[in-house]
Amino acid sequence: MTDEDHMMRAIALALRAADAGNDPFGAVLVRDGRMIAEGMNEVHILHDVTAHAEIQALRAAGRRLESTTHPHSTMFASGKPCAMCMAAMIQAGISRIVYAADDGICAPYGYSTRTLYDRMKGEFGDQGIIVDHLPVAAQRDPFEPRKIRGQK
Fold first, then answer.
1. Source organism's superkingdom (predicted)?
2. 68 vs 91: CA distance, rounded Å
3. 4, 38, 42, 54: which is the annotated catalytic residue?
């Protein structure tokens, strides 16, 4: 399959998402020319702000391949990925992102990525949300090796 074939599948998923009452986005994750997972925006149906198409494709790939990383993979997205999705794809080791509709197409419909990318450019804590650091005695415990149950 070609890049255009994969993009047309992402667009078909975007149409399905819109028909279901969600935001109009779809995504297909491909490795070695074969689709390994796909996703469509399900934010409204799942009441989950993180259920963007790219995130849903990453979740499906994780379950299918039992892996949280997907190196040497390409994400085909029907629209320009937002900062959240971009961060998730970076974290997952995605090698390439191909998108169709850019902000010029999406913004008039209320789907610009610019505001979120602009907010994320600042240092941690400069995104317009109050962030408080609260050090406590047990803060290191989750990172320490766990003792075997029953041993002291």
1. Bacteria
2. 9
3. 54
Decide if pLDDT at 96 tops 80: yes
Global pTM reads 0.89
Q: Would residue 54 show up in a list of annotated catalytic residues for this protein?
A: yes
Q: What is the pLDDT of residue 150?
A: 46
CA angle 108, 109, 113 (to 5 degrees): 80
Three-state secondary structure readout of the chain: CCHHHHHHHHHHHHHHHHHCCCCCCEEEEEECCEEEEEEECCHHHHCCCCCCHHHHHHHHHHHHHCCCCCCCEEEEEEECCCHHHHHHHHHCCCCEEEEEECHHHHHHHCCCCHHHHHHHCCCCCCCCCCCCCCCCHHHHHHHCCCCCCCCC
